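Entry for the shared binder. Reason: the reviewer on the internal report wants the predicted structure included alongside the sequence.
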Amino acid sequence: MFKLIFKVLKWAVLLLIVTGVVAWFYPQTFLTVDSGPVNADVLIVIGGGQHERAARVAQLYQLHAAPRIIVTGAGDAEINRRSLLSNGVPARVIEVEGDSTTTFENAEFTGRMLRAEKVRSAILVTSWYHARRAEKTFAHLNPGVRFYSRPAYFGFDRADWKKDGINRRMRLEFLKLPGYWLRYGVNPF
């Protein structure tokens, strides 16, 4: 019995190491979640990044992906709202949640709005390297809503990773994913 447990444990550790190495060298494959062309009740732009997220939301709004937009994140909410307006999005379709300071709070506070408005589906827009954790966190906290991911791809090419601190932000996701799993129960898989 002990030999069987040791063998299973050995293979599990090996699988974990191989997965970690692959994720480290090919982070785009592991971190990026993109649902492809979808329609939903609302678009949600999550604060952070280099403000490329609002431009992506404006693009998706123009493609009629959703009729409404929620901007979430303390500090970034107003900047993203103004960016949406300057990209031709009418003010009447934009709602702001400006109190959240983390991805968990983005999901929690925006989730309250979604439940109050009986939203059934939402498209999350964030940076490519943040897409997995964002989608998993929103889905974990808001089980009655179907979430899709349509990330912005600013800094996606490996040559651009050092530019604007993307390399650092992307690598931090490898700490935040298991951190959210341990602290909040948000399974990253």
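Summary line for the report: Strands lie at 42-46, 69-72, 94-97, 121-125, 146-149.
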